[in-house]
């Protein structure tokens, strides 16, 4: 990732779009998350790093309520969401991806995109009888939106291919593209560069920066430190389920506790 250059951007002094505090989660006798907190400023790219087993993905699961916290609270856009269902959180504008991209292999790339669209009139059985023109117009607009996004991530030429034919990196791009179909406020990316070749990593990073400039907020888990350091405005460090440090990429790179716990120095 030497070809991904750090980009200097002005600090963003806005209220947090996402704020979690005092999160605790245990599995049996194992405390996976221990009074962890995190904030993501609106319009930022925020990183979450830590050694293997630090609890990063578990924290993602708590933020998106794929699992419920034992204690603590999560605010999104100023409203508590820790008691909502995952689909309700997604409807409010917070979408997440996974370490292993989840695609429907036997559907086309375009069909995968269209399935991610929320609040479709055609989802209501009775409205399919009375609002056919509206539904047809919506479907046309959704296909145009999907193709525009596929063009932006370099997958338009594969729109009608089975999603199962995509490489690992292309599946990551498709998953991000599907997230964009719901017009989110915040995307949580779980290791977007994992298992991806350097060319596609650069493409993913370039697209993240472009979407961020257009107003989209990101929270990113990533082991590739070049990606984190070149993309992020602020970085949170987790170790053994607890907050270890938070700061700018430069501050984190020189933090003695981080070097010891995360980098093994």
From TrEMBL:
Which Gene Ontology CC terms are recorded? Answer: plasma membrane
| Domain ABC transporter: start-end pairs | 18-265
For this protein, the record's Gene3D superfamilies field holds: P-loop containing nucleotide triphosphate hydrolases
Q: InterPro entries annotated for this entry?
A: AAA+_ATPase, ABC_AA/LPS_Transport, ABC_transporter-like_ATP-bd, ABC_transporter-like_CS, BCA_ABC_TP_C, P-loop_NTPase
Write down the SMART domains for this protein, in alphabetical order.
Answer: AAA
List the molecular function annotations (GO) for this entry. Answer: ATP binding; ATP hydrolysis activity
PANTHER family listed in its UniProt record: CONSERVED COMPONENT OF ABC TRANSPORTER FOR NATURAL AMINO ACIDS, CONSERVED COMPONENT OF ABC TRANSPORTER FOR NATURAL AMINO ACIDS-RELATED
Q: What is this protein called?
A: ABC transporter ATP-binding protein
